[in-house]
Every structure is written in C-alpha cells, then in structure tokens.
Amino acid sequence: MISWANYHSHTQYCxxxxxxxxxxxxxxxxxxxxxxxxGHASVPFATEWCIPDARLAQYLQEICKLKExxxxxxxxxxxxxxDYLPGQMDHLKRLLHGHPLDYSIHSIHFVDSxxxxxxxxxxxxxxxFDAGLQGIFHNNFRMAATRFWELTRQMIREETPRxxxxxxxxxxxxTNRCYFDENESWYRNQxxxxxxxxxxxxxxxxxxxxxxxxxxxxxxxxxRAIVSRIAELGIPVVINSDCHAPNExxxxxxxxxxxxxxxxxxxxxxxxxxxxxxxxxxxxxIEIATPKA
Length: 293
Ligand SMILES: [Zn+2]
Ligand SMILES: [Zn+2]
Fold this sequence. Notes:
Layout: E1 2-3, E2 5-6, H1 20-29, E3 34-40, H2 53-69, E4 75-83, H3 90-96, E5 103-107, E6 110-113, E7 119-121, H4 126-137, H5 141-159, E8 163-164, H6 185-201, E9 204-208, H7 210-215, H8 224-233, E10 237-240, H9 253-262, E11 267-272, E12 275-282, E13 285-287
Helix pairs in contact: 5-6, 6-8
The structure holds zinc ion (2 copies).
C-alpha cells in the first residue's frame, strides 16, 4: 500500500486553524494510513501558540477519543511538539504525569532571553529575530547560531527525543544568505558535532516541508548539505508537513521524497501498528507493507 503519513500537526488547541477532527477527515480522504497530532506543548510562561496548561488534559482526551472513534478508518497517534527549555522541563513532565504519549517531537523555538527576561523566539518574524540578534548577541550571528546548536545538543543529551523537529530552524530568516553562508566552516562544525551526537543517541530527524509550501523556500528543514550528511551517517528520517490547517497535511511531501531520493535516502520512518518502521519512499508516497489476509 502506498500512502503518506504525517506526525507534525497543529490544531485549534495551539496555533492551528481548526479542531482535530477536520484533520482526521482530510487524512482519511487522502488515504493516509497513519496520522499524528503534535500540538505545541504547554510552557511555563505565556505564549500565543502553546496549549495553555488548563487545556492540555482536554487536548490529550480529545485525541484519544478520536483514536477510538476512527480506528477502523485510520491509525491516529497522540503526540506533542515539545519546546526544549533548559532547566524548565519539569513543568511539562508534571502536567503529563499519567498521560502517556505515543511519540513526541522536540524542537527549539526559544534561544535564551532578553535583559527583561522575555524569551527570544527565533521562529516568529524577522523583526523579532533581529531584535534578539541585536539585544542578546550584539548582532553576532555566529554567536547566536552557535548557541542554537549548543542548545540542540543539550536537548538531545537530556531529553533523547524520539523525533527532532526542524533541526536547522536557525536559518529561517537567512534569505539570500543575509546573515551567513551555511558552508562556513564554523557552521558546518556545529552541524557535524550535532549529527554525530544524533547518530549515537538514535533520534530520528524530521524532514519538515513547511518552509517549502508556506514560504516558497526550495530548501527544507534540514537543508540539502545536512541531509546528505544524514544519508552518510544512516540517521533515520521522518517526513512531516508541520501543518496548521487540514488542507496542508500532505503539502510538500512529494517534493520532500524527491529531495531525499536525490540525496540517496530511499527509506523513511513511519509509526504504524504502534511501532516505528522503515519504509521505502518515492514521490508517489510511502510503501507500507501490510500483512496478507
Ligand atoms: Zn516548531
Ligand atoms: Zn510545529
């Protein structure tokens, strides 16, 4: 059977467009065999895009209810996109106590804080990006990016993520290489050290298509150079759309498959029948072996 699968999606519980059920219906309509929800997990400070503490239990319950309700049509999985916040991970662990997840995606959206204690979000707007670059790192991009990669490694060591979300997010606003060139040796060294660590710890790296379909970027997260090194190191990958609306669930997936195939990756991981499996991938989709009846 050939199908797509997506494990990175945001609904109305965080910053997505609508209720989870609409994503399920669209995934069934598109013939997905598996679909996962990964709302932005609660963080110990106010944001406009994370699931508020008070709504987390309801989110978990609703996805569990949908799993039951639709189990004959599609396999649904309960996850979260978890922000790595050094020294502050206990907040979420307390909230999740007694609520097992099927998987989680660990991502970095926050890098250190401004003098007034406000977190620097590297993922909102160019204005915010530039404000943090100047206010925290004195306009030294190399220092900021080095800090980003250090935090990424700290996250991998401390949390051993199942999936690492948009691994090279720090390049988001680097259009026309306005901040740096990804080929600079200091940057390549940061990437290499991180990939070596990932290879040792066994996390999967997400191939995230959102920049491609939403902002018209030809490179994905992570970019070509990083993915070809991932291929050499044999690190497992999973294709995700990071969708925020039902009509985005499979956006960019054929492109990502072609991108991977060109860089010598011919298999991706999918969560199916409750386990992660490595399956052949092409522009047409992921080939999932189904047991003969
Ligand atoms: Zn994210
Ligand atoms: Zn996301």
